[in-house]
Amino acid sequence: MATETTEKQKSTRTMVLNMGPQHPSTHGVLRLLLELDGETLLKAVPDIGFLHTGIEKEFEVKTYQQGVTLTDRIDYLAPLSNNLTYCLAAEKLLGLEIPEHAQWMRVMLTELTRLNSHLVWLATHAIDIGAMSVFLYCFREREEILRIFEMFSGQRMMTSYFRIGGLALPAPRGWQKRVKDFIDIFPERIDQYENLLTNNQIWIGRTKGVGYISLEDMLDLGVTGPMLRAAGLKVDARKDSPYSSYEKFDFEVPTRTENDVYARYLLRVEEMRQSTKIIRQALEGMPSGSHQADAPGVVLPDREKMKTQMESLIYHFKIVTEGFRVPEGEVYQAVESPRGEVGCYMVSDGTQKPFRVHWRGPSFGNLQCTGKLIEGTLIADVIAALGSMDFVLGDTDR
């Protein structure tokens, strides 16, 4: 009898292990509380909030135009996607019509942001699983994209290039050649990544059949983006609720049905190809026109006019020092970011500062499925499954 009790105690003994918040494979300050039976994961609880910045509350003490700089720092791998969401929400409240040139330029730069984000994802996901070369190759191409951003805005990451009413600055001289040079070589570079990984038996062994979660569970938990599409659900805000002229671009929304880590890899690689296709269309068909709307009380006047016309100088002074009033109302604007649906719920009380700005971050929804995704797997598979989610902790904590 005593022997039976001892054996039962041994079989039910588990160990609780902290993974993070400093673990490199959590890609940020995330703590995972893992309960293990040997190497089998019984339970996983994500502990978030280490990166909380109070950005949503900060919006309430900034003028609308100042708030753009905060959006860069929410999902710091897709700052222009956040710029776009915020600006579109404010423009809805203001009833602003954005020139076609500015809309197409926004599309082109947002798709470059998608490439930038997916390259960081693939680089870090691969190095987590032991593929060192892919990390170096992806960052080689990412550097070219950051140089394009720097050419447009003067900043590599936190560009704040999209502004309420259009763009912060006209496109710089020579931008067409820089963008064309990049998209001409990029498809071949994607082929290089695939040659290293897609048929690699070690990569397949570490990713195929790993990280499965049912589509129903994902929908219940608020998962969006590539994870849903890798489970066969064709949802993409660019097609379902087009914004900023996306309806004028020809591209496909890739899907997979295997719903595992390998399927999410293949899907994001195909998304990079589709983004390259969109960027090429934007480059070749870019309409002429102004980079900002004709809205003197909202958009900063041209600098030359400001120096020669008193009325423009007054508008500039008032917008910079006081901001501009936005009509009372509330809106919700969704954009398809590299991680899924990013949404901005904005409430105006008629003053120069938002009454409320709430951010629907895709990483928060995606991270909610952590338990369902990795419970019952081996601890070695936790790293691969986490990487396939592509979350950003700044976006999760806000």
CATH class: Mainly Alpha
Radius of gyration equals 23 Å
CATH topology: Cytochrome-c3 Hydrogenase, chain B
What is the string of helix and strand elements? HEEEHHHHHEEHHHHHHHHEEEHHHH
Helical residues, percent:
40-55%
Any idea what the CATH architecture is?
A: Orthogonal Bundle
What is the helix tally?
18
Coarse structural class: mainly alpha
CATH superfamily: Cytochrome-c3 Hydrogenase, chain B
Shape: globular
Count of DSSP strands? 8
Unreliable parts: none
Distance between the termini: 55 Å
Beta-strand fraction estimate: 5-15%
For the biggest sheet, the summary is: 3 strands, antiparallel
Kindly give the count of domains.
Answer: 1
Mean pLDDT: 91
- As laid out across the biggest beta sheet, the strand order is 1-2-3
Short description:
This protein has 398 residues and is mainly alpha-helical. It has helices at residues 2-12, 55-58, 68-71, 79-94, 100-129, 132-153, 175-197, 201-207, 215-221, 226-229, 237-240, 261-285, 303-308, 310-322, 362-367, 370-374, 379-389, 393-397, and strands at residues 15-19, 31-37, 40-47, 162-163, 166-167, 329-337, 340-348, 356-360. Strand 4 (162-163) and strand 5 form a beta hairpin.
SSE layout and pairings?
Elements: H1 2-12, E1 15-19, E2 31-37, E3 40-47, H2 55-58, H3 68-71, H4 79-94, H5 100-129, H6 132-153, E4 162-163, E5 166-167, H7 175-197, H8 201-207, H9 215-221, H10 226-229, H11 237-240, H12 261-285, H13 303-308, H14 310-322, E6 329-337, E7 340-348, E8 356-360, H15 362-367, H16 370-374, H17 379-389, H18 393-397
Antiparallel strand pairs: 1-2, 2-3, 4-5, 6-7, 7-8
Helix pairs in contact: 4-5, 5-6, 5-12, 5-17, 6-7, 7-12, 12-17
